[in-house]
Write a structure and sequence with these properties.
It contains twelve helices and eight strands. It is of the alpha/beta class and about 260 residues long. It has an eight-stranded parallel beta barrel, surrounded by five helices. It is globular. Bound molecules: 1,3-dihydroxyacetonephosphate (13P).
């Protein structure tokens, strides 16, 4: 059997943690996570905490990402943050198209596409989020919604860009609800995403593409998810806000991958 891809566990801190609180968590994570080999680890604090967290995690194995970006590099765009700003603050990655941004802040597949392009141009690894809502799943639209997120979100991205990015499948109904998708439900969509990538980007990009699962991931369910063929890691919300539970997820991902 082909070796699985190197796991990636990412923590999306959403709108939690002030600068001082984020610094506390970063120190805890550095102690708890930094000596675990074999897995990549990423945290995405609020914009106001990126610099302090990046300074604390400098030289550790934990990378830092933004939760969003704007597609212009600079200009009169009050409230926005650009790729060069994230990069200079210490980010290597950026989450794009999270369902909460699509739901509450008017993010569309078109704006996602512009942001993905801006991230790649700014030398940030985009973590593109895709996934269906509960009503879309009930209406059997899961695959068509995910396909549209991919087709439109990644329109015009060349092979180099496709080879760089990470995709996170986050069924909206499983986010913050305690309702994790079953491992089979998750695998089915991850397999679909990898097939999509094979058609668009070719076999080699599809084989190395890391696809994360997100939605109520906890230390107790990570191993089962990671055991699935096309699940390469997790994008964790709530359980990433505590150093012990996040370290438990990082450790659990390794156990299954080894
Ligand atoms: P929860 O882990 O809190 O369900 O959040 C998942 C998520 O949205 C990560 O981006």
């Amino acid at each position: 059997m082909m070796a699985k891809r190197r796991p990636l566990i990412a923590g999306n801190w959403k709108m939690f943690k002030t600068g001082p609180e984020a610094a506390e968590l970063a120190k805890g994570l550095k102690a708890a996570v930094s000596d675990m080999g074999g897995v990549d680890v990423l945290v995405a604090p609020a914009f106001t905490a990126i610099t302090v967290v990046a300074d604390i995690l400098k030289g550790s194995a934990i990378d830092v990402g933004g939760q969003d970006l704007f597609w212009e590099t600079e200009g009169a765009y009050t409230g926005q943050v650009s790729a060069p700003m994230l990069k200079a603050a210490g980010c290597s990655h950026v989450i794009v198209g999270h369902s909460e941004r699509r739901q509450y802040f008017g993010e569309t597949n078109e704006t996602v596409n512009r942001k993905i392009k801006a991230a790649l141009k700014g030398d940030l690894v985009p973590v593109l989020c895709v996934g269906e809502s509960e009503s879309e799943r009930e209406a059997q639209e899961t695959f068509s919604v995910v396909k549209e997120h991919l087709d439109k979100g990644l329109e015009g991205i060349d092979g180099d860009g496709l080879a760089k990015l990470i995709i996170a499948y986050e069924p909206v109904w499983a986010i913050g609800t305690g309702k994790t998708a079953t491992t089979e439900q998750a695998q089915e969509v991850h397999g679909f995403i990898r097939d999509w990538m094979e058609k668009v980007g070719g076999n080699s990009i599809a084989n190395t593409l890391r696809i994360l699962y997100g939605g109520s991931v906890k230390p107790g369910n990570i191993a089962g998810l990671m055991a699935m063929e096309d699940i390469d890691g997790a994008l964790v919300g709530g359980a990433s806000l505590d150093a012990d539970s996040f370290a438990g997820i990082v450790g659990g991902s390794l156990g299954a991958a080894g």
